[in-house]
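User: Here's a structure from my thesis project, written as structure tokens. My advisor, Dr. K., wants to see whether a designed sequence matches the one we expressed. Can you design one independently, without my sequence as a hint?
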């Protein structure tokens, strides 16, 4: 007489996990082959060539995927999901890059300049607010950075994921991006609830807090 493990048994769960990890590894190996087979001829735009940027986005995705896989194997599910969110962001950027090419590369550059300037400005503001020396050497260096960026990148603007998604061919992926943002990246009540559980004891019901 043959018997089988229940669908929710530890052995069944272990088999399912092993199959998923094996499949994920095959995806990873295939993606690495795609990167290895890519042929891009450098031109005057050098690293800003849209095809080069696309390859680096794919490399970033491979790194995120590999790390997410390692975390999942260690049962750090939420941390793995945070990296999956990065994968969806990469996909949105690749979609916009496919549609807009060099124009989107320039928007990426202006976005980075915007955020670097915002960081420097915020640092100066908080330094002043909390009694720091805004005329120190470091503060003066930050002010020079802000001025230099304003000259070099006069069209600074922040990229928004929703707008980037709308500009590409994978706009529907924005839904998943938002879902992973809500329960894996942002410190929401739902995300915090993953660390809570309860069990019945002789004294009543106990609330349990766990690290993972």
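Assistant: Designed independently from the structure alone:
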């Amino acid at each position: 007489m043959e018997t089988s493990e229940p669908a929710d048994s530890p052995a069944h769960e272990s088999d399912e996990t092993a199959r998923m990890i094996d499949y994920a590894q095959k995806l990873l190996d295939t993606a690495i082959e795609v990167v290895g087979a890519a042929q891009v001829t450098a031109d005057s735009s050098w690293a800003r060539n849209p095809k080069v940027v696309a390859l680096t986005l794919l490399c970033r995705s491979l790194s995120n995927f590999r790390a997410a896989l390692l975390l999942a194997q260690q049962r750090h599910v939420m941390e793995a999901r945070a990296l999956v969110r990065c994968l969806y962001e990469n996909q949105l950027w690749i979609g916009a890059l496919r549609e807009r090419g060099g124009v989107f590369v320039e928007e990426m550059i202006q976005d980075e300049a915007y955020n670097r300037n915002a960081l420097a400005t915020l640092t100066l503001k908080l330094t002043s607010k909390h009694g720091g020396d805004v005329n120190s050497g470091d503060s003066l260096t930050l002010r020079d950075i802000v001025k230099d960026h304003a000259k070099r990148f006069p069209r600074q603007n922040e990229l928004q994921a929703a707008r980037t998604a709308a500009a590409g061919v994978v706009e529907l992926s924005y839904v998943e991006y938002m879902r992973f943002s809500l329960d894996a990246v942002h410190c929401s009540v739902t995300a915090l609830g993953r660390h809570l559980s309860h069990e019945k004891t002789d004294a009543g019901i106990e609330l349990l807090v766990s690290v993972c």
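When you compare it with your expressed construct, this may help: The mean pLDDT is 87.
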